[in-house]
Amino acid sequence: MKKSLLMSAAFFVGASGMATANSDLQALIDDPTQWAIQTGDYANTRYSELEQINKDNVGKLQVAWTFSTGVLRGHEGSPLVIGDIMYVHTPFPNIVYALDLSNNGKIIWKYEPKQDPNVIPVMCCDTVNRGVAYADGKIFLHQADTTVVALDAKSGEVKWTAVNGDPSIGETNTATVLPVKDKVIVGISGGEFGVRGHTTAYDMNTGELVWRAYSMGPDSDTLIDPENTTHLGKPVGPDSGTNTWEGDQWKIGGGSTWGWYSYDAELDLFYYGTGNPSTWNPAQRPGDNRWSMTIMARDPDDGKAKWLYQMTPHDEWDYDGVNEMILTDQEVDGQMRKLLTHPDRNGLAYTLDRETGELLVAEKFDPVVNWTTGVDMDPASPTYGRPAVVAEYSTEQNGEDVNSTGICPAALGTKDQQPSAYSPKTGLFYIPTNHVCMDYEPFRVSYTAGQPYVGATLAMYPAPGSHGGMGNFIAWDNIEGKIKWSIPEQFSVWSGALATAGDVVFYGTLEGYLKAIDASSGDELYSFKTPSGIIGNVMTYEHGGKQYVGILSGIGGWAGIGLAAGLTDPNAGLGAVGGYAALSDYTALGGQLTVFKLPD
Q1: Does 276 belong to an annotated binding site?
Q2: Nearest-CA neighbor of 28 among 113, 139, 186?
Q3: What does the record give as EC number (predicted)?
Q4: Domain 27-595 - what CATH class?
Q5: Out of 290, 440, 493, 564, which could bridge 432 as a Cys pair, Cβ 3.0 to 4.6 Å?
Q6: Residues 319, 323, 329, 330: is their CA dihedral positive or negative?
Q7: Burial class for 336, CB neighbours closer than 10 Å (0-12, 13-18, 19+)
Q8: Is residue 518 annotated as part of the catalytic site, yes or no?
């Protein structure tokens, strides 16, 4: 296939979708001096048109100012900038600060929710939160205890609250929310506790629940139309959310929805992925376990599904499908297509037509991926769209209480939630990745509400026979399905990337370095070590005529759970503690925002 770039998806959505997107938020997204949504734009490109900081001068960056959040544990997500105010969030207890950028970052208001600390042990992989959202003069926060809160953006006053789940049965939240039109769309965490995942829309002005779509269950619960909802171009048929489950296992089937959401205003569809099925022991849940591990395209007005694509049927490795869906318009075989690109936990990067759900590309974005030989791309084949599983690395075929060794990638995937960026200038996707393999031993487990429902013991380690490190930062061609360049890192790259019109790509490392890279060549242009390991997402904005780059540092998340929670058992943290034990030699706990600028 050949490729030529047309334009940024951010421009496409902004120009053609004003009638259906939230107009207040869309206007801010279209202004590159703001950072108005966690993903940079509705298309999830994490691309900025700002170019005052560019590849020729980025080496001169210096720290402009810092802000301590007052909270330890893992700091994911990023601040927002709306006008003269920056909004900064923290992990549990999910404090929100409004800072006055025109007055030396003075705290305008602070919101500190009073949450039951018993929610902390129910959170799978650290107490992270991926940030607040803004629309219509309100800041939206989805707390760890699943309370959705709307705050007045100027005063911090609580306008409304809604309870989205029940921590007593394992439902929690780690994600941001998606404001679309007059609704706020939210997901749920808890796949490791046997919850049934769902996506929910609340009225932006009142907090009233408008609709809820479950990941699995009867058609009335999943909001799937048996005749009009398609999977790889064919109607899914009746009972698709139950007929690949044994008995009532779907009721505790996982498929949580804690990842990133994108939206196409012209098609009026939003996109997201569902997580792993429960339990991690595949022998206890025969069948494809639909619709876990699935890319979903839904109507934001009523939640109805237009198309679905299950990437990892009957998951045997915990390869959640919740990573970002990046929307671009590109040429494929001489024809302009509306594309969706998704680098999945399972090590395959998918390119689909986002209007129809047609599968165009499915290729490995780390050469060490070995659990599959690849995806059947023949539409006439009975296994079209399915990955071919390598028996040696099949945890089900090897059996319960058998340790399957050398599986690549590990359960945290070739990438986890850390979001990629896309540059319309290069036509490349910049993907932070994990270069980690695992041993995986499933065992029989019984379900008890509110208790872990995992059923597997894991060990993680760097990919054998490689550069010795646990991460790479790569440039990916989503049409050719090929890596263009790759930067090895000692630890997983758990930071969200940022691409800019200045031909620079930024990302952070678990040791705490903010790095600036030439978007074309991959050459390193700048590096600065912040006080703690970085699992936050790089953002940029302009204020007073100067461009700034900001990053939250604060080690934690799944990779840093050992440091964050003080764990020492190598098998703790679902196998991550042992794999990342050396992190303590390079960084320590912290919670800080560091903002950079060029010299005056």
Answers
A1: yes
A2: 139
A3: 1.1.2.7
A4: mainly beta
A5: 493
A6: negative
A7: exposed
A8: no
